[in-house]
Every structure is written in C-alpha cells, then in structure tokens.
Amino acid sequence: MHFPFPADKIINRLKETLQDSQDMSDYIDYLLNKPGKMLRSRLVHLSANLYPSQESLVIDVAVAIELIHLASLVHDDIIDNSNLRRGQESINSKWNNKVAVLLGDYLFAAAFNIINRQGLPAVMETVTETIKIMCIGEIQQLYLTNRLDITRTAYLEKIYRKTACLFASSCQVGGLISSMPQRQIGIIQNYGLHLGNAYQIIDDVLDFVSHPGLLGKPAGNDLLEGNINLPVIIALEDPIYGPELKPLLQDQITISMNLKKIIRILTESYALDMAIGEARKYLNQARQMLQQLPSGEARDDLFTLSDYLLNNYLQAGISSDYQKNIPESKVWM
Questions:
Q1: What is the mean pLDDT of the chain?
Q2: Which pLDDT band, with edges at 50, 70 and 90, does 312 fall under?
Q3: Tell me, what's the pLDDT at 3?
Q4: Measured between alpha carbons, how far is 66 from 127 in angstroms, rounded to an integer?
Q5: What's the pLDDT at 214?
Q6: Which of 23, 24, 30, 77 has the smallest CB count inside 10 Å?
Q7: Long-range interactions of 3-12: CB distance < 8 A, separation 24+
C-alpha cells in the first residue's frame, strides 16, 4: 500500500465514540480487541482520497461504516448461533443474546449519531438503505437455509445483500464526502460491488480449506449452519460428483460426519477452483472500474486491494494440510 491508512486514528476514534457509557465498556473493549481487516473503512478512506477531502470528516465516516459492519456481525452471530468471531468467543456466546442484540443496536445508533452530527443527509440515506438491504439479505438467507436447490442467481443475490452492498456503500460514501464528480460516484460504487462479490466468494472457499485458527471459525462452519455457497452449488451441478455429494448434505449431523469427504468432493470436482475463477472475474471487473478514475496513490491502493484478496487473503488462509492434497493441475494456486 502506498497511501497511508490511518488505522490508529480510526480505532482511537471508534473507542472515543463508544466509550460514553461505563456500562458498555467491557463489551466494547472485548469487541475491539480484534479489529479485523477493516476493509470497509479502508474503502471509505481510499475512495474519498481519489479527490480532495477533509481528513477528519473521512475518519468519522470510516468509523461510522466500521460501526455498521460490527453491528451486523454481532447480530449475525445471534441469528447463526455462532460461538466464534475472529478467533474468540462471539458476544452472544461470551455473554448472551440479550447483550448481543442491545450492543448491536448501540453500534448502529453510534454510527447514525456520527453521520447526523456531521450533517450528511446523502450519506445517511445511503447507509440506511444499505442496512435495509442487509436485513432483507438475512431474511433471505434464513429462507435459503439447507436449500440444495439454490440457484447461482439466488446465491449472487444473497451475497450482494450479505456482503457486497456494504462494500459498494463504503465506496459510495467515500465519494460523497469528497469533491468527486457525481458521474464518478457510480463508478467507485460499482468497484466496491465487484470487490465485495469477490471477497464473499473467496471467503466461501476458505470456509472449506482454511485452518480454523486463521479464519477464526471451524472449517465447514458455513455449511454446518445451512449456508449453501458457490463451491457447493457448482459441485451439485456436476453430473458425476453432484449425486455423490447430495446425500452428504441432508442435515447438519450428516454434514458433520462427512465433512472431510465433502471437502474431497469439492476439490476433485474442481468446484473450489471454479469458484475462485468466478472471484477472479469480479476482481477484473473491479479493476476495469478503477481505470475510469483519476490516477494516483489512492487508486493504486484500490488496485492493490483487489490483488490482496487473491495473493494474500486467499493464499495465507489455505491450510498446509489442504495444500498437500491439491492436484498439480490446479490453476488458482
């Protein structure tokens, strides 16, 4: 990265924003103990800095987006009954669902408060619409739980609402708080959309091939929660491997007992390989969007961010045990 990302400033601003209640301090300290990759706040920062912008305003909006993301994670863990988040106990597991619901609500309120204090109606409209989309996505995901007949179209709609819409919104609000021309805000928004799609597909692949300590959750966790993702959809479509895979996905007990066999089928059928190919397509589309934006260090880092997903996030996440079993013909390595 060439353009400095003020991670410390954003984390300090996060803490400053949230530490207005002693009653919440234990939960907030625990939540911020592992801040994650901060991809969405990075997107705000880089998008805003494609054109002249005010640093303090950019940091505040980046913090608001990070708060919205954190709130969605806390609520997601309740819905999914997840016990782990970023390698440590989830809020609902360490305390309880009531605490998690209220903490998530508190984070949303803190984000809205920041945006409102800055007097940014366009940003407020963007993020509230995005949250609506994310909520619809959670409802859709509940409907699609354990649905082996899920289509690729339905899957793409799901990951747009689950992940890509917030990536797109992060880029959009970055443009809105800078001097970016209106005609280019849609371009940077589409960059975020394609990047978000690629990120979620890569995350779906890592769910099967990553070491639990690296991903922060057990291997196959999404599948055990009933989330049928792209590698599984691709394998189910295969005329040879699909009939072998389908009986292994009938319920959570069957999946848990046959997880190694499921991962073998996803490997041998090239389903993981083809899913990464789809992620590459989205990353290429994201790079094409950037070609239409002004050159400079911020744009260079947006290019680098797309490379990071494949060359760092994916590669670093693949467990050594899985790498030993990858056929030499695998092209995505």
A1: 89
A2: confident
A3: 64
A4: 11
A5: 59
A6: 23
A7: 3/46, 3/49, 3/297, 3/298, 3/300, 3/301, 5/38, 5/42, 5/45, 5/46, 6/45, 6/55, 6/59, 7/35, 7/38, 9/59, 10/38, 10/41, 10/45, 10/59, 10/62, 10/63, 10/66, 11/35
